[in-house]
Design brief:
The protein is α/β, with parallel strands linked by helices. The chain has 10 helices and 13 strands. The longest helix is centred in the middle third of the chain and has 25 residues.
Length: 285
C-alpha cells in the first residue's frame, strides 16, 4: 500500500513544474477519432480536460464529428461520399453536418465536461465570425478553407473562466453561407490566433513512425525543417500529410509546439503535458 501511495505522490510531484509552466497559458486540443467514439476514452479525455482547466490552464477544445454525420446521413437514407479523403458536402449534407456538429456533438461534449465539474460553453465558427472560410474547391462541395479567425468569442469565454468547445462549421465569406471545415485545420488556425503555447492533435495512431508497422519506431520530436525529407522518404504519407501540414503552419506562426497524440491511450493528454515522458510526436521549429 505504501509503495502505491508513494508512486502516486511521485506522479503528482512530477506534474507540478509542468502545471506551473502551463498555468495561465492556452492549450488547444483537437478532439476526434476513437477518443470520441469509445465511452472509456471519452471519459478519460474529458477528465483530463477538466483537470487541466481546474489547475489554471486555458484549454480550448475543437471537435469534428465525422462518424456522427455519417450515422445521421445513413438514418436519413443518404450515402456519404468522399473525394480525396474529404466528405463531399452538398447543401443537404451541410444541413445535416451543421445540425450534428453544432447541435448534438457540441452540446453532448459541453454536458460531459460540466458533469465532470468543468464550466464549458459551446461555440461554433458562426458565432461572431469565429471561423471565416471560402470554398476549398468545387470538387468537394461546401467544404471550406479557413481564411480568417476572430478569436474574441473564445478569449471572452476564457476571461470569464469558461472552457470553450468549438464545432468546426465556418461562416462563408464568398457568397455561400456555411462551410464544413477540417477540424485539424480549424484547431491549428485557432491556436495561431490565440497565441497558444501548445496544440494537441488527437488521432488514432501513435504518432510519426519510421516503420508504420512498428509502434516502437516512434519519432518523439521533429523539426518543421525535417518534414519535407520525411515526406519524400515515405515516413509521412496519406492522411498524415495534411495533419502534419497543420502542425507545421501552427509552429511557424507562433505556437510553441504541436503534438500528434494517440487518443487511443487513456489520459494521453495528461501524460503528454504533465509528465517527463510525454507521448506522441512533438513538432517544433
Amino acid at each position: 500500500m505504501s509503495d502505491c501511495l508513494s508512486d502516486r505522490a511521485q506522479v503528482l510531484a512530477e506534474a507540478l513544474p509542468y502545471i506551473q509552466k502551463y498555468s495561465g497559458k492556452t492549450v488547444v486540443v483537437k478532439y476526434g477519432g476513437n477518443a470520441m467514439i469509445s465511452e472509456q476514452l471519452r471519459q478519460a479525455v474529458i477528465s483530463d480536460i477538466v483537470l487541466l482547466s481546474l489547475v489554471g490552464i486555458h484549454v480550448v477544445v475543437v471537435h469534428g464529428g465525422g462518424p456522427e454525420i455519417s450515422q445521421m446521413l445513413q438514418r436519413l437514407g443518404q450515402t456519404s461520399r468522399f473525394v480525396d479523403g474529404l466528405r463531399y458536402t452538398d447543401e443537404q449534407t451541410m444541413d445535416v453536418a451543421q445540425q450534428v456538429l453544432c447541435g448534438k456533438v457540441n452540446k453532448d461534449l459541453v454536458g460531459l465536461i460540466n458533469r465532470k465539474g468543468g464550466r464549458a460553453v459551446g461555440l461554433c465558427g458562426l458565432d461572431d465570425g469565429l471561423l471565416q472560410a471560402t470554398q476549398l474547391s468545387p470538387a468537394y462541395g461546401l467544404v471550406g478553407r479557413v481564411d480568417e479567425v476572430n478569436p474574441q468569442p473564445v478569449l471572452d469565454c476564457l476571461e470569464l473562466g469558461y472552457l470553450p468547445v468549438v464545432a468546426t462549421v465556418a461562416q462563408g465569406t464568398d457568397g455561400n453561407g456555411v462551410y464544413n471545415v477540417n477540424a485539424d485545420t480549424a484547431a491549428a488556425k485557432l491556436a495561431i490566433a490565440l497565441k497558444a503555447s501548445r496544440l494537441l492533435l488527437l488521432t488514432d495512431v501513435r504518432g510519426l513512425l519510421t516503420d508504420p508497422e512498428d509502434e516502437g519506431t516512434l519519432i518523439p520530436t521533429v523539426r518543421a525543417s525535417e518534414i519535407p525529407g520525411l515526406i519524400k522518404d515515405g515516413v509521412i504519407q496519406g492522411g498524415m500529410i495534411p495533419k502534419i501540414d497543420c502542425a507545421v503552419e501552427a509552429v511557424r506562426s507562433g505556437v510553441n509546439s504541436a503534438v500528434i497524440l494517440d487518443g487511443r491511450i487513456p489520459h494521453s493528454i495528461l501524460i503528454e503535458l504533465l509528465s517527463d515522458k510525454g507521448l506522441g510526436t512533438m513538432l517544433t521549429l
